[in-house]
Amino acid sequence: MKYFYLILFLMVCSVKSMAQDFKFAGISHEDIALKNTVLDSNANAIVLREFGTAMMDHNDADGRLAIEYLYHVRIKIFNKQGFESGNIIIPQRINDDLEDEIRDIKAVTINYIDGVFKQTELDPKKIFREKRNKYSAATKFTMPNLMDGSIIEYTYRMRIPRIFNFKSWEFQSGIPKLHSEYIAVIPGLYNYNVSLKGAMKLSSSNAELQKECMRISGTNFDCSRMTYIMKNVPAFIEEDYMTAAVNFKSAINFELSDYHLWNGGKRNVTKTWKDVDYELVSEKSFGSQMKKKDAFKELMPEILKNTTDDLSKAQAVYNYISKNIKSNGFIGIYSETAVKKALETHTGNTGDINLSLIAALNAANLDAEAVILSTREYGLVNSLYPVITDFNYVVAKVNIGEQSYLLDASVPLLPFGLLPLHCINGQGRVINLKKPSYWYDLKASQKDYTRYNLVATLTKDGKIKGELLTYSSGYAALKKRRDILAANSVAEYVEKLDEKMPKISFGKYEIQNVDSLNLPLVEKYEIEINSYNGTSASQIFFSPFFIDNISKNPFNLNERTYPVDLGTSKETRCSIQLSVPEDFVLTGQPKDLNIGLQENGGRYMSNTTFDNHIINFNQLLQLNKPIYPSEEYLSLKEFYSRIIQTQKTEIIFKKAK
């Protein structure tokens, strides 16, 4: 990430003319003739031109400052797959009942038919506002009369009733762009920290003076007018195993650093962590909730009745909170309802639940702290200076002896000490009621681990019958427990497994430790595999890779400019022992493979032996790093390609003549 400061020295003596927005629907024959080969031959659509501008506006009636934002874009649709670009969604934030206001929407689809430009305007009645929750809404519409070769164009204005985060601008999106231009007009009263994110560089940027751009209480103020342009911008393609795209897309962001009062004086907005610590500890919906030990005074004897040491006390408290306060679906670092009400209603947001957990741990005389963090979907936090809006989640940290455990009681089925993967995102900030805050690495305490063991026999009629035993722990066990919960019962879970594997029949089964979250999940199945070819059992085809088969490479880009972030290390082991009748001989088998990633980053191994009428097959897949830098992407891609090629092969038996 590249940081620089917007220093509003008003040194330019003359005012340059305002950059002009491009003419609405003013397309040319060159636009019609444009092919996707101009930038990306795989593109289904392309932005021909994009323009935006944002400036502050002061409402003398209510004294509020807001940001007035204009957006205008023209897009060429190449084929039906590009029609998705015609589904427009404009996100709107809601904060303290102040909502981003959308107005002046104008949209048109232009087609070139029989040598004539034909325009189809958007019907205003087909613009819809959708309130997603109490924090966000969206304005949505679909461009009319789309066809191959259409050019769509739309513009709108937005009034944003907040100035701390000046309107950001994304140069990169899911489709390439030929020209993207953004102008930010900022009064000299305000200084913003400006960050340019992503791998792309600006094509051009400049700053100039704009005289008397804003009037407050009868006084005119000059502005700095910043222009940022990026040309020939490639599409940002999202792949598996990444954190929020906002971390890596080429974009420009603004955060208010300080401002001058129009009647004199200066106020800093960028605070020190000491300032933030004091505010959070004093905050009624944060620090005050961490102190609510009295809410658990009468409950604690019952909660701790079977405990013997601090670790068992912490586990008992964690289990009580996770079972008695359920998530209402909202996340945040602050409590919405307060600890006492959350206990009474048995529901709350993540702040209610995990701040209650901290209070309860403290009530049990344990050393508990809060950790505020940003989830993987929300983006990385700014480590250079405190920005409280960078954080959207809170968990508990309990310190027992030399060991610390991170706890999230808001997510069902999490074992003690394991954070959900959406919380594994860089660093969190530990907030203590009495000590200064500090950064803490958010690392997975367990790996994603699965071990399969199949002992089976090939019968004379070509069927493979045996027992499949599976051990899962860490995130693998969490996923399976969630699947069991979603299926409503173990029986339905097994039935769905049976449906997913049509060549395998599941008989008797036993699943252990479904509710014992700190123990591995153990699954035992009697299975039968119909492996003969057609109606003849003379030739048997058996794929030892039928368990956790990798059929598609998750990495398909020629280049990836952002890291592969698994969140945790992973290990999968599989062993198969297959007894074969004496009148069958082995005629084919997968080639043994043993490959590794650089710097002990991972390993894949598979080998097959046939001795004394017994096939022994072993497979190991290890990914030892939670995060692989972009420089290792191509080797990881090749690693998976070789695995997939190996897993396409089978073990083949034939009846001896």
UniProtKB/TrEMBL annotation:
<keyword id="KW-0732">Signal</keyword>
<feature type="signal peptide">
    <location>
        <begin position="1"/>
        <end position="19"/>
    </location>
</feature>
<dbReference type="InterPro" id="IPR038765">
    <property type="entry name" value="Papain-like_cys_pep_sf"/>
</dbReference>
<protein>
    <recommendedName>
        <fullName>DUF3857 domain-containing protein</fullName>
    </recommendedName>
</protein>
